[in-house]
Amino acid sequence: MTGHAAAARLLDSWQDNAAAWTAAVRSGAIESRRLATDAAVLDAVLERQPGKVLDLGCGEGWLVRALAERGVAAVGVDGAAPLVEAAAQAGGRFVRLSYAELIAAPERCGEGFDLVAANFALLEEEIGPLLAALHGIMSADGWLVVQTLHPLAAGPPYEDGWRTENFSGFGEGTWAPMPWYFRTLGSWLGVLREAGFALQVLREPVHPQEARPLSLLMGARAI
User: Residue 103: which CATH number?
Assistant: First the structure.
C-alpha cells in the first residue's frame, strides 16, 4: 500500500470505527487510556495554563469536554464526520476538517491557539505540512503536546514504516483495521524541528502495576 493510499484508508477507518470508538472511550474500555494516557495528556495541557486549545484529531471529544470542565476554552477538529457529530452532541465546539483541508485553510479552526494537543492523532506519514500549518495559527511561543504509542509498546522493528492496528482489546463492536505510521524517536524529533518546534518535555507514562511504558509524550514550543 502506498503512503497516499494508506493515508486515505486511515481516514476511512475512522469513519467505519466511529461508533465502536465512541463507545470504547466513553465506557472506559481501553485500559491504557483509563490507567495512564488520558490523565497524562490532560495534565500536560493544563501545566501550560493555556487560554485557548486546539484538540487535533479530537475523536469523540473527551479532551475538549475535560478542558471545558476546568475552565479552558478548546476547539476540537477531526476529519471523520461521525466522530465530530458524536462530539458535538455531547457538548463543545468542533470543526470537521480533514488534515488536507486543515493544511489548505488552517484558519477554519480558529487562530491564536496557545496550545495544540495531538493525542494519538498524528498517524500519517507526511505530517510536516500539517505541523507547519498549525504553527501559523498558534500564538507566539505556543506549545504543541503530542502523545503517541511508545516504541516499546509498539514492538519491533524499530524503524519508520506503516503498521496496522486491529483494535484488539478495545472493547466490543465491529472494528475495521487501521493503517498507521510508526516513527522512531529520532524521526519524531526531526519532524518537529523541521516544522518549527523545539522539544521541551519528554515523558513516558507507564502502566501503574506492570511498570511498562504505554506512551511517549512530547511537549514542544513553537519557535
Answer: 3.40.50.150
